[in-house]
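Intended use. Records like the one below are meant for learning the mapping from a protein sequence to its folded structure. Do not use them to infer anything beyond what is encoded.
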Amino acid sequence: MSESTPRLFPSALSDYAPWPVTQPHTDRELERLVALLEGCGFRGGSVALGHGRDAASRDAATAFADTWQRRGGYLAAVVDWPEDAASWLRQARRLTRPEPDAWVVAAAPVGWAQMSRRLRHSTDWDPRRTFGFASTGDSRLVTAAGPGVLDGMRGATAGGRVWTIRRGWVVESDGE
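Structure written out for the chain above:
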């Protein structure tokens, strides 16, 4: 991995293989994710929603969008990205340009590792205002993304627990 570029070399990604297949989201996961956003003061706020192009990520993003809007929230942007791309810069700009209150991510670990590095290197994206589905709380992803890239990001596990990335560790708890 090169610290001077957001792109991870394939060999860096293979160091953490095998990467898990993104699983369909659960109702408990979705409920906790929305409750976590609301509990952090983003109720009814604007959210930029980013997701991978695999079926599980698309379905999770759609479920979140429907739930968020039904509860009075606003979607500032919905942006998808491929698992492999030349740079992800166009998607990163589309995700951050509307200056949302928060970001929500549904993606496979490899794609999110690449996208988060691009966001951190090229935009004013803040992982502390970013919330993810269970697939984005993988400790291998945190290591592959690099030091400090994802610190502060939070999300929900499939079982409805909360995970937080702190100093390179994924820490789970029952509460917010």
